Amino acid sequence: MSTNVIELNHVQKNFGRTQALKNVTFNVPTGEVVGFLGPNGAGKSTTIRILLGMLKRNGGEATVFGQDPWHNDLQIHPRIAYVPGDVYLWPNLTGGEIVDLLLRLNGQNHTAKTDELMKVFEFDPKKKARAYSKGNRQKVALIAALSQDAELYIFDEPTSGLDPLNELTFQQEVLKLKEAGKTVLLSSHILSEVEKMCDAIVIIREGEIIEQGNLDQMRHLSRLRVQVETDAAITGLDKQSGVYDLKFTNHDQTAATFAVDHDVLGQVMAALTPLGIKDFQSTPPTLEDLFLHYYSDKGATQHVAQ
Question: Which PROSITE patterns match (predicted)?
Answer without folding.
Answer: ABC_TRANSPORTER_1, ABC_TRANSPORTER_2
